[in-house]
Amino acid sequence: MRPPSPSIPEKDFFFSALDQALRLDGRDFLEARPHSLSFGAELGHVECSLGKTRVLAQVDAKMVRPEPQRPFEGLISIHCELSPMASTEYEPGRQSDEEIALARMLDKIFRRSDTIDREALCILAGERVWHLRIAIHALADAGGLLDCASLACAAALRHFRRPDVEVVGANEVIVHPPALRAPVPLALHHTPYCITFACYRAAPEPSAAAAKGAGAGTVAGQTETAPRVLLDPAGLEHRLAQGMLHLALTPQRELAVVHKAGGLPLAPGVLMGAVQVAARRARELEAWLDVRVREDWVRKKVEVR
Amino acid sequence: MSSRIEILNEGGFRSDGRRQYELREMTFDSTAQAGADGSARVAHGLTEVLVSVFGPREARVRAQTLHDRASIHVEATIAPFSSTSDRRRRGRGDKRTLELAATIKATFEPVVQTSLYPRSQIDIFVHVLQQDGGVLQASINATTVALVNAGVPLADYVCAVTGGVHAAAPMLDLTSLEENDLPHVTVASMPRSGHLTLVSMETRLHVDRFEEILRLAGEAGPVIHKEMRAVVRQRTKDLLDGMGKGLRESNPAEAMIEDE
């Protein structure tokens, strides 16, 4: 049994706060929650948190025979699991709609956008390729699960290194254990970051929102009657959203996925404003992730003399 | 095979002889299915979609009834003979079909005035008969016309169009050959306000190029809207004429007065 939708007082409180340009947790409209990463002992094991949302991502690779129609390409599969542990909204057993939607989006962000060079996963054409399995476990869902899952997935792919292999003769493959040869990082073309916006109808009296310092914290091109766009919706913001906009961008200002299915109609200007904000955030996330992954690699290095 | 075909040649023509911004021929048939409350068969070039709308009618499933508005239920099927490349039979659980249905449902939920019909349901059945690129675009346009034919109140028409970029040259209404090679975006807009209800892109594209396509698609929306409105008006006129004819036959005296 699903918990009931937000109560009328909750809704009223949320929307009257929004009319005064306030969010429930005191953030600006275009401010995201704090994010953090922690790496496990294994390569490719990452736990990511975005506010109170937490996601565990685990990448592992095993050798398999490639598909006959694509003998030069490795395989990639993404598995998502939303257990009742994450939120009371999820039920055990059958795949829920949220789970299917999350898996589809991650599939589009990381697989369809060619993030991973599949041909680099080939060991012996037609005989042996790597099969990358990315497992996503939601540990806690307080809104923005997709953003957190995609960040965890990106971090895990950057953190993961596969064992070095050597092909001897015609079809003999030697796998070198990590202790003897440094494992090899994945060949990634780019790293997409998913950024979510929640949209709400404009305030009934636009002057109220404009008076309360809406200047700095609004999307460029947002006029008084334009809908309000919130970056990184959490909890109640997520459940009361009148429209959601998911953008996946690479730090090179390339859009990998744009997903706005229905919900509140947006003017093209507002949409482009959101894209610009997302592009900036993707660059920030890239810089941050780069530093964190490098730190962990330096920490893991064992020198043999 | 497709690598040898020029997407856009030096003369500015595409593989099927169109210009960059040229749309394919659109045909609308709003008499496709007599049994439905409203139906439309829409073809964009070789892509053809049939949509039937039933309702608003009493909700079949009690648990799904909403006390303050109508619920919309969308079912999509892709005919196994619809494409040349992939002829497998898609079952009910197929991910692509489910996604198509979910997208259409999400697109029309804010547009249909559901609050006028509490405790009822509107069923939309989408059948993809032929695929040659722009399946989502054709499905959305067909659903709009079918809903209008069924007399379901809408906030506005929803006009969808696909755009793509080939070597920095944007183009509209892609065929499947172009869709396979180019990054493409499907945009559904509401022509009265110019606002976008659906934007869907699954391939990589630079932000600046994306902005260009968005603008172009916004311009293409009203063109499609004009076509749709003409079809709806023609259909209404036909119905009105038909009604007048029936009246004349049943009541010759009145017809005589009218003739004078």
Automatic annotation (TrEMBL), chain A:
Residues 31-163 form the Exoribonuclease phosphorolytic domain. GO terms for biological process: exonucleolytic trimming to generate mature 3'-end of 5.8S rRNA from tricistronic rRNA transcript (SSU-rRNA, 5.8S rRNA, LSU-rRNA); nuclear mRNA surveillance; nuclear polyadenylation-dependent rRNA catabolic process; rRNA catabolic process; TRAMP-dependent tRNA surveillance pathway; U1 snRNA 3'-end processing; U4 snRNA 3'-end processing; U5 snRNA 3'-end processing. The keyword Cytoplasm applies. SUPFAM superfamilies: Ribonuclease PH domain 2-like, Ribosomal protein S5 domain 2-like. One of its GO terms (cellular component) is cytoplasmic exosome (RNase complex). It is found in: Cytoplasm; Nucleus. Its main location: cytoplasm. InterPro entries: ExoRNase_PH_dom1, ExoRNase_PH_dom2_sf, Exosome_comp_Rrp42_subfam, PNPase/RNase_PH_dom_sf, Ribosomal_Su5_D2-typ_SF, Rrp45. It holds the Pfam family RNase_PH. Keywords: Cytoplasm, Ribonucleoprotein, Ribosomal protein, RNA-binding. GO terms for molecular function: mRNA 3'-UTR AU-rich region binding. Belongs to the RNase PH family. PANTHER family: EXOSOME COMPLEX COMPONENT RRP45, EXOSOME COMPLEX EXONUCLEASE RIBOSOMAL RNA PROCESSING PROTEIN. This is Ribosomal protein S5 domain 2-like protein. It comes from Russula ochroleuca.
From TrEMBL, chain B:
Residues 22-153, 156-219 form the Exoribonuclease phosphorolytic domain. It is found in: Cytoplasm; Nucleus, Nucleolus. One of its GO terms (molecular function) is RNA binding. Its main location: cytoplasm. One of its GO terms (cellular component) is cytoplasmic exosome (RNase complex). One of its GO terms (biological process) is U4 snRNA 3'-end processing. Component of the RNA exosome complex. Specifically part of the catalytically inactive RNA exosome core complex (Exo-9) which may associate with the catalytic subunits RRP6 and DIS3 in cytoplasmic- and nuclear-specific RNA exosome complex forms. Exo-9 is formed by a hexameric base ring of RNase PH domain-containing subunits and a cap ring consisting of CSL4, RRP4 and RRP40. This is Ribosomal RNA-processing protein 41. It comes from Russula ochroleuca.
